[in-house]
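Hi everyone,

Forwarding the result from last night's run.
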Amino acid sequence: MFENEITEQVISAAIKVHKTLGPGLFESAYESCLYFEFFQRGLFVERQKPIPVVYAEVKLDCGYRADLVVERKVIVEIKSVEALNEIHLMQAITHLRLLDLRVGLLINFNVVRLSAGLRRVVNNYWESHDL
C-alpha cells in the first residue's frame, strides 16, 4: 500500500470512531478504538511503537513512542486537546524523522467536526535529499 492509500484508510477509521464516540475522551480511548478499526480493516498496525533516539552514534532509550504506526509507513499521533499547537506538529515531524518515515497524521479528537482536527504531516528530509 502507498502512503496516500493508508492515510485514506486512517482518516476513514478516525471519522468512524469520532462519529461513534464524539469528543471529550482521553487519547487512550481513541487509540484503542482506532487500533481495533485498523485490525478490522486488515491493516498491520504497531501500537505505542518505541522511538529510539541516536545521539553521537549512541542509541538512547528515552521512552519516546509513536501512538500508532500503520503498515510500517504512516505515523498516527492522537490528541484530545482544546487546539493543536505548533509543538504537536513538531513532535510528529520529529517522530517521523527518528523513525525514518515520510508521512504522518496528527488527529485531534476533541473537536466537533473531525476535519477541523486533522493535520497531514510530512517529513521534509525526504524531499530535500535524493533517496
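Residues 3 and 73 are 6 Å apart (CA to CA).

Cheers,
N.
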